[in-house]
Design brief:
623 residues, alpha+beta, 6-stranded antiparallel sheet, 17 strands, 43% helix, 15% strand
């Protein structure tokens, strides 16, 4: 696991700004504390920071292939040994996946990417045709940002802060990206929060040549075929075997390796699969001072079951002490409050391991989110009523029904009525929104809203669902999540919070072979009634027991509602002390202050909207 940075001349072979390249590379030191390297030639320069995992002596970068091609790479290729056996015409000199990747690309070009089983973001320069290739893995596990300078250079790096450190590009906020953030709580790919700075989307390559504009191509897409499937029980056994294989493949490491362990079936299943290899897994768990968010007892049960070397760390999740740290490492505004405990669990795990397997991806691949069964129920209702009728009936109901923040969930019908008045895709976009759109909209300044020119963040989900290539509602929702939510929110959080501590994380459930197999499963293998992850739970019941796999899910997010109502450590008080958000021109100050007052008095639950503004303010102050 590493950090990469580089500069490429789009116009010719001008000298590379060495100071800018050094500043970019230095900004990535936390991603690669074990070493630094550079490659500079006419018109191109690479910088690299290394976290040594495989062949710790022989995998230094940038790496030169025998053809003279250069590679700067962040990630792990889990099947590199098998690929090395098939690589002809070259004798590898190291045991590193870096050399295998460099030589494979030198021989086969972009087509070699189809052979890779792993996570990666890399830059590959081929001097034979003076071309640069940037590539990102299929699901977006590893990040890659890029931008064009005003004088015709392409700059790229693992994190947005490294691009800004170059001093070669301006950084003005993109209003539409900000609107996306206020709706979803993150900025979906390929946008970034800044104009002119982009994320290379998952499963895409960018090719740049001197004298030409860069071109971007997609090389893979998740497919939900709903093909004929084996009987449910047989499929569950196959799934367990496939997860075992993916876990075994991803346990390859020359550095200490363990796993995050919570009380959920995803991480517990990963630890169980690690034990099947004969290992005594190192499992890392953190506990919180909030009982409803503390899963140590359940994690301890799993650790004992499989003979894991279990490390428990009790932490007080102090928002006031973590907000700026999290915001600084994110580099963009990010309103998922679970980033705070994610930072802490990574910090605790790094004391014991350098690599940690995670359960990331289980909810997206096997339909574990609560919004999936609700969306399917709404779709059945949409089939029964034409759009004009739904708009005429549910629209007024949604407007009139009170927002019962204090009530049990089944009485909070306002958002359901509003979703039913919309199209299928617009309704699902609303389900993915982190905030109540009307409430957040009221907190934004009229001048800012006018700059949007009618832009609606919902179009991101609507476009993704239209691109899914299927009419199956669950498949359309899962596809949208795989190309927006997963890379833009969930994997960003894991990558930034783990790399803040020089910790590599690997999610076996996102092995692309497993994702492709799961995509062909029928919807009822994933969702039954109002419960998701049906087949994943069935697969691990023989190992974990029925009581464990059916236990109520506990959230990893901290108790925002309580945090924003209590005394002197109340994070909302930060907004009163900061001028950044007030002077940004994006907010209606009086509306924000009224929202905070309503929440603190107990009259409404505005916790997520307030947190969204707190984290935007933190972004402004830490950029």
């Amino acid at each position: 696991m590493c950090g990469i940075a580089g500069i490429f001349d789009l116009e010719g072979k001008r000298d590379i700004d060495r100071d800018a390249l050094a500043a970019m590379t230095s900004a990535l030191t936390h991603r690669g504390p074990d070493g630094e390297g550079y490659f500079i030639a006419p018109g191109v320069g690479f910088g690299h920071r290394r976290l040594a995992i495989i062949d710790r002596e022989g995998g230094a970068q940038p790496f030169q292939a025998q053809s003279g091609a250069m590679l700067s790479y962040n990630g792990e290729i889990y099947n590199y040994q098998a690929l090395a056996e098939r690589l002809s015409g070259v004798t590898l000199k190291t045991r590193s996946d870096t050399e295998l990747l460099a030589e494979g690309l030198a021989q086969q070009g972009a087509s070699f990417i189809h052979e890779l089983r792993g996570m990666f973001a890399f830059a590959f320069f081929d001097p034979k045709n003076d071309s640069l290739m940037l590539a990102r893995d299929r699901l977006g596990e590893k990040p890659l940002y890029y931008a064009e300078t005003s004088d015709g250079f392409l700059v790229f790096a693992s994190e947005i802060n490294a691009l800004l450190a170059s001093g070669l590009i301006s950084a003005s906020i993109d209003p539409r990206a900000a609107a996306d953030y206020f709706y979803y709580g993150y900025v979906p790919d390929p946008k970034s929060i800044y104009r002119g700075i982009y994320k290379l989307s998952p499963a895409h390559i960018l090719v740049a040549e001197h004298g030409q504009s860069p071109r971007i191509e997609r090389y893979w897409r998740p497919v939900f075929a709903n093909a004929s499937a084996p009987p449910f029980e047989d499929a569950a056994q196959m799934l367990r075997e496939k997860i075992d294989a993916a876990v075994k493949l991803q346990m390859l490491s020359d550095a200490p390796l363990g796993a995050f362990l919570s009380g959920g079936v995803d991480s517990a299943g990963i630890v169980a699969a690690m034990a099947q290899t004969g290992a005594h897994p190192i499992a890392c768990t953190i506990g919180f001072d909030e009982e409803t968010h503390d899963e140590r007892a359940a994690a301890r049960e799993v650790a004992n079951m499989f003979g894991a070397v279990h490390h428990e760390t009790f932490v007080e999740c102090n928002a006031s002490g973590l907000i700026d740290k999290v915001a600084a490492h994110m580099g963009e505004p990010f309103a998922d409050a679970s980033a705070l405990p994610s930072y802490l669990v990574a910090e605790a795990a790094r004391r014991h391991v350098t690599v940690a397997l995670t359960g990331d991806g289980g909810d997206e691949i096997f339909a574990g989110y609560r919004r999936y069964p609700f969306f399917l129920a709404e779709e059945k209702m949409r089939e029964l009523a034409p759009a004009p009728l739904r708009a005429g009936v549910f629209g007024p109901l949604g407007a009139a029904y009170p927002k019962l923040d204090w009530a049990p969930r089944y009485l909070r019908a306002k958002t359901t009525f509003q979703a039913m008045a919309r199209s299928s895709a617009a309704g699902y976009a609303a389900a993915c929104a982190i905030n109540l759109p009307a409430r957040m909209n009221a907190a934004l300044a009229p001048d800012f809203k006018r700059t949007l020119g009618g832009y609606q963040p919902e179009t991101i989900i609507e476009t993704a669902m239209a691109d899914a290539g299927t009419e199956d509602p669950l498949a359309r929702a899962q596809y949208a999540d795989l190309v927006t939510w997963l890379p833009g929110r969930m994997l960003v959080k894991t990558d930034r919070m783990s790399m803040a501590h020089g910790l590599e994380t690997r999610p076996p459930l996102l092995d692309h072979k497993l994702v492709e197999w799961a995509g062909a499963l029928p919807a009822d293998y994933k969702v039954k009634g109002m419960s998701g992850k049906r087949i994943l739970k069935e697969a691990f019941t023989p190992r974990l027991g029925a009581d464990f796999v059916t236990r109520p899910k506990q959230g990893f997010a901290p108790p925002l509602k309580k945090w924003l109502r209590r005394g002197k450590n109340n994070p909302a008080l930060r907004l009163n002390a900061s001028r950044a958000w007030r002077e940004s021109g994006l907010f209606n100050e009086k509306a924000v202050e009224a929202m905070i007052a309503a929440h603190r008095s107990g009259g409404a639950d505005c916790a997520q909207e307030i947190w969204t503004i707190i984290m935007f303010d933190a972004f402004l102050r830490n950029r």
